[in-house]
Design a protein that fits this description.
By secondary structure, the chain is α/β, with parallel strands linked by helices. The chain is built from nine helices and ten strands.
């Protein structure tokens, strides 16, 4: 079964997360998304991508109930794979627009932060980096991507509160760039992707690299340590007790 669907139309590839009702992230969907992105990078037809989800969620974030059975080493391997994925997406040479069709939480929002533009459906869901609310931390890379978009003061507010933001609130904070009616979301996302793709591709790639590569290099340098700290907190008694209460319906 495929958890990542790809559709092609007029030079734009739509990449859709499609795993259950909430598009929760596990090793399988992370690997499949990476494979699809690699294939599209080498494909001359799509000049830009739209990343979205199926149903009422862009992504719930990590499949926490599944990870409760993981030993520390196995979970660390997953986190390494996941952070490498969002770093790859952050530096992706083609334009990527995130069309947030619904709730975009934790690890799901980290993927959205790696894209070039985020557009969200009005009234359909909320965005959050809510890890602190159940006693978890985040990663060096996700912190730097958030800071890249909104600056340190707003990043501190978002991460230390763990608040859930409506589309309109997210727009006000700079977490998304546009809010659209649900029925216009994908049309607008493809239009933004097409506009970015109309730029000379080598120039776009160069400018994107100039803006992001120094940040990515810092992310990579610090990521291993942040994963180690994340795992220590995840398996600590208070956080582990909170994780037991998280369900996916």
């Amino acid at each position: 079964m495929s958890f990542v669907e790809v559709e092609h139309s007029n030079g734009i590839a739509t990449v859709r997360l499609s795993r259950g009702k909430v598009n929760a992230l596990n090793g399988t969907i992370v690997d499949e998304l990476r494979e699809r992105l690699h294939a599209l990078e080498g494909d001359q037809d799509p000049k830009a991508l739209v990343l979205t989800g199926r149903g009422k969620f862009f992504s719930f974030g990590f499949d926490i109930p599944e990870f409760l059975s993981f030993a520390r080493e196995e979970f660390t391997d997953f986190l390494t794979n996941f952070t490498e994925l969002y770093t790859y997406l952050f530096l992706y040479p083609k334009p990527v627009v995130a069309a947030l069709n619904g709730h975009t939480i934790a690890g799901g929002f980290m993927l959205a932060l790696a894209c070039d533009n985020r557009i969200m459906a009005a009234g359909r869901g909320k965005v959050s980096l809510n890890e602190i609310t159940f006693g978890s931390s985040v990663f060096a890379g996700s912190t730097e991507m958030l800071r890249f978009w909104v600056g340190s003061a707003t990043a501190t507010k978002v991460l230390c509160s763990g608040a859930m933001y409506s589309a309109e609130e997210a727009l006000g904070l700079g977490l998304v760039q546009e809010v659209m009616p649900e029925d216009q979301l994908m049309v607008r996302a493809r239009k933004i992707a097409g506009d970015l793709a109309s730029r000379q591709s080598s120039a776009f790639k160069s400018i994107k690299s100039l803006l992001r590569k120094p940040i990515a290099e810092d992310m990579i340098q610090r990521e291993k340590g942040s994963i180690r700290a994340f795992v220590d907190i995840w398996y600590s008694k208070p956080t582990w007790a909170n994780l037991q209460d998280i369900t996916i319906r």
